[in-house]
């Protein structure tokens, strides 16, 4: 019964998306559409509610482990802890697609409720676009991936969930990313709506910006959390692998970052109109393309948990329809959108355009690296593109971008000169040089980490310069957001560079009782014991780790074997200090009663994720600042309108 | 009309064409081991069941070609291929097994239910030998010649149609 309610709600939501599309299209064409136009906003709101009902029903069947539902039988198990039962609802293809449309419908409902700034006609076009995109994904769910499908005979027991996914961090990692991906669908719909009505105005940018900011915050958090998960769960000691799935989350982030800044220019200065529209289309297109690349199994990835060429064809058709349609509309219409305000090269806009171009170039590089294996495979050559391509080629554009980022916020809008910020620019240059010299003296560091360390130092200082000479209490919240986000980039960059430059690795075969050295740490293997958990057994190495002459700390890395389904995972053990992490992994038994133990000392590696969180915090502050000032502006305009009405 | 505005659409069309082409290509998921054509790595496995023979690399150099079957009691395709292994044994093939991540009681139960075509079974608790052989899953079957060289790798379960082929490979290995 519960599953049927969910399915019915999903069909109804799809019908409302269709209504939204038809009513929106009629209203935009004008004429007799005015009455039907009143239906659009309510349709969007109810669609959001119905999709939520459907998703809650899916959570329900997972919570009670209803084994007559195929999806539950295939992905859950009655013995699993409750939180992983619920996470199982979205830890599979059908459930995650349902989460996708639910978030999309909710976002559409929310703009229908709150967005009143835009001209009504643009709003109708936007909601029609949102309904149109939603409709495709409803069709995908209902026709080829029904999450509520029943089994003719209920299963006796569920098949379990991939044990790699039975981790609390991971339970909330995909939804976070999804909020980001799908939040960008709003930017996409706004862009398409504005293209249809040709009303690309600063108001349009202000309406779009909170959504881009929100999605961007979720993407930042999702990428940060995902990177930390890969770091401690996979047990390889790395935190970024340039895996297609990681790239699939990075590309929308890059596009959204560019969009955020160009929307800022459009909102403040009425410039970069066509460019902002383009980025709005590209950002969500990257989300959809990423999903396609991962789900179709067209690229080999460790993340591919639902590989099915037929579904791949369906998603590809959706991509062709939406991305192709939006790009076609762009090609036809963008020429008729006037250019907007002009500005000189040395200005805030100039710096933002420069960084936008750099971000787009980085995006292109990541995209090419991700798709390149697809291209060569067409000619029967299997290649894998990894760090040797991404790191140096990306650096060509990252380095100038970071330099401009350090001084750009100091420039004034419209027209400025380098002479005015000469002292600050000299300071930034001096820090870069000093850091380069200092680090080269300290140790033998490769060129990329060396440059990164210097740039991190310069950016850390540069990002704080906009605070100089300002009354900190009167500083707008959004400016605080920018400063903190830029500072966070510097912190993360420092962590990445430090990890690359100063990490120590040790692979040792030790007898219980013996010790191994790694960097400043002495790690003694005390004992090796078998341990058992609710659905796994493990070999646990009890180790005592001592930092220089400090007190020993006990850690216990495990090599786990799950049996539903059978799979091996490593549970690395970490000791976090302010200046880095000790990372220990238990390996196999070696000859003569020895055990393989892999140890890393990674100085300041945690700064990568602290930085990511700071960037997200900056985004949250910017969002709060924008929303508050929008509310203020709204009440001011209302008061002016009221006063006008009072005085005859 | 500004032709530059069409560039994004053109690029996207290229991506679509490439993806559509690749989606319709048969996907070769099997990765052949690089060990084919090389000597077996050194190993000495404990017996998978008490009081039964174990498996060591030294046993493979006695001049008799063998099939080395990588299996596990928890593996469903292994149940499906069990009748074909028995047929191979009846046709004169000598088969040894490597049980991956298994328990003695489970192996015994598996053999009692599905038949025992193996002359010896080694236990590979941590997939160490499996990784050294370059085997990416269970079941897999390797043809080993009389000098301990890996001559052929069959990935996945053995179907009825594969039996003559494997017997042929064994005959080739004898020469």
Topology:
The complex is a heterodimer of chains A (648) and B (175).
Chain A: H1 2-29, H2 33-37, H3 40-63, H4 70-75, H5 82-88, H6 93-114, H7 120-144, H8 168-197, H9 202-233, H10 244-269, H11 273-295, H12 309-333, H13 348-377, H14 387-407, H15 422-442, H16 447-464, H17 477-502, E1 504-510, E2 515-518, E3 521-532, E4 536-547, E5 553-555, E6 558-563, E7 566-571, E8 573-577, E9 580-589, E10 595-603, H18 607-646
Antiparallel strand pairs in A: 1-10, 2-3, 3-4, 4-5, 4-6, 6-7, 8-9, 9-10
Chain B: H1 7-23, E1 44-45, E2 55-56, E3 66-71, H2 76-90, E4 95-100, H3 104-114, E5 118-124, H4 128-133, E6 140-144, E7 150-155, H5 162-174
InterPro entries (chain A): CcmF_C (IPR032523), Cyt_c_assembly (IPR002541), Cyt_c_biogenesis (IPR003567), Cyt_c_biogenesis_CcmF (IPR003568)
Domain Cytochrome c assembly protein (chain A): 90-296
Subcellular location (chain A): Cell inner membrane
Question: Overview of this structure, please?
Answer:
The complex is a heterodimer of chains A (648) and B (175). Chain A is α+β, with helices and mostly antiparallel strands. Chain A contains 18 helices and ten strands. In chain A, strands 2, 3, 4, 5, 6 and 7 form a six-stranded antiparallel β-sheet that branches. Chain A is globular, with a radius of gyration of 27 Å. Chain A starts with a helix and ends with a helix. In chain A, 49% of the residues are buried. Residues 301-306 of chain A have low confidence and may be disordered. With 175 residues, chain B is of the alpha/beta class. Chain B has one domain (34-174): Glutaredoxin (3-Layer(aba) Sandwich). Helices cover 35% and strands 19% of the residues of chain B. Chain B is built from five helices and seven strands; from the N terminus they run αβββαβαβαββα. In chain B, the strands form two sheets. Chain B has a five-stranded mixed β-sheet with strand order 5-4-3-6-7. In chain B, strands 1-2 form a two-stranded antiparallel sheet. The relative contact order of chain B is 0.20. Chain B: Residues 34-175 form the Thioredoxin domain. Chain B: Keywords: Cytochrome c-type biogenesis, Disulfide bond, Redox-active center. Chain B: One of its GO terms (cellular component) is outer membrane-bounded periplasmic space. Chain B: One of its GO terms (molecular function) is disulfide oxidoreductase activity. Chain B: This is DsbE family thiol:disulfide interchange protein.
